Amino acid sequence: MANNINYRDFTDDNHYIELAGEVMAIRASGDVPKACIRTYGCQQNVADSEKIKGMLAEMGFEFTENAEEADFILFNTCAVREHAEDRVFGNVGALKNIKRKRPSVVIGLCGCMMEQKHVTDRLYKSFPFVNLVFGTHSLHKFPELFYNTITDGKRVYETGVDDKTVYEGIPIKRDGTFKGWLPIMYGCNNFCTYCIVPYTRGRERSRKFEDVVAEAREMIEAGYKEITLLGQNVNSYGKNLDENATFANLLREIDKIDGDYLIRFMTSHPKDCSKELIDVIADSRHISTHLHLPFQSGNDRVLKAMNRSYNREKYLDIINYAKKRIPDVSLTSDVIVGFPGETYDEFLDTISLVKEVEFTSLFTFIYSPREGTPAAKMDDPYTAKEKSAWFSELLKVQEEIAAKRCAEMVGKTYRVLVENATDKDGILSGRTSGNIIVEFAGDESLVGQFTEVKITEARNWILKGELA
């Protein structure tokens, strides 16, 4: 394979699962050991937690949401925004009392935050009751690290070890029964100047084409109705594989599998979003008509400072092609307000792009500096108060657009995957192919199934409907 990517079967090293299971059967405070897993951040973190739960389940663990009764407490952390870091440190500090009452409880942290030295240094110095710390590259070594923690009583820290390997065969305990995550690649090569992900997740590594298709088939045969393909940049899938292993071809191959299901994917990078990919979506049987394509800024100078590798014209070209080929396409995006050095006039270019595209919804953020990224060292002359005012202006514009788009859906009928019964008696909630929430009256037996819903009322972010 190109780029020195290795592939290895996790089951070659799983004897630590059995060994750790034997120890925990003795150490457990109850009949069986219990684990409490808290996940912060993106869908990739959720998928990683499902693998950790899979390994723990094979050790004999059951799972609880109550940290007070757990024998093992693990926080899977996110490093994308400063607020997420602050939350984690606050919540870890609250575990000190649990450790004082029950010294045998094992407390661990993993995920992207753990791949930052200033974070692990602070943990080691200020949180001595934390037993286990490991980064994103050591997920496959979790059974060994956990075993070492519970047998020698010493704090175990393992971070920064990227062996450029994709590990297959790690057991998975999925959180859902009809919606599931399917990672297709790991890492990122883009190095946007504001983003910490390439430093915490490493370089791009694509799973083998046939392994992804096989797992998709297994999930569909197991009854999963919605499968979301995951990657830091799914459009880069296959760059370390042969020339036919592109993301467009992967989608095309999965779409051929018989069954009643929907394929979604997160996240796309505009620089790699091809017209071929749009064509595959337009011509598919099972691929969602929702395209999440983060543009971050509508101004070319700011985009260059962000190292986004595309400009406004290129972004709008792919958006307009998507609108042409997929008439009912639902477009969403990410926007950063107040990137270092961004002027108000440059921010207005973002506003004008939002008005031109008319997104279904936006994920909007005020710029948050991340230690270790180039943007954190850039001059940033504008105040938090000024950026907050711009942010409010953007939200107001998007709210008006969302209200208009939702109003246009009234009277139309959509296929909806019913996700849950709300707290209101007899009210169900689901999402359209375009990822828009719909609430309607119906029997709880419909949860996990597709049904046709006619839209009767529109609100800014949620539609009301009735069974068609």
What is this structure's SSE topology?
Layout: E1 6-9, H1 15-27, E2 34-39, H2 43-58, E3 62-63, E4 72-77, H3 82-93, H4 96-101, E5 106-111, H5 117-126, E6 132-134, H6 142-152, E7 156-158, E8 165-168, E9 179-183, E10 185-186, H7 197-201, E11 205-206, H8 209-221, E12 226-230, H9 247-255, E13 262-266, H10 275-283, E14 290-292, H11 300-305, H12 312-325, E15 330-337, H13 344-357, E16 361-366, H14 384-407, E17 413-421, E18 427-432, E19 437-441, E20 450-458, E21 462-467
Parallel strand pairs: 1-8, 2-3, 2-4, 4-5, 5-6, 6-7, 9-12, 12-13, 14-15, 15-16, 19-21
Antiparallel strand pairs: 10-11, 17-18, 17-20, 18-19, 20-21
Helix pairs in contact: 1-6, 9-10, 10-12, 13-14
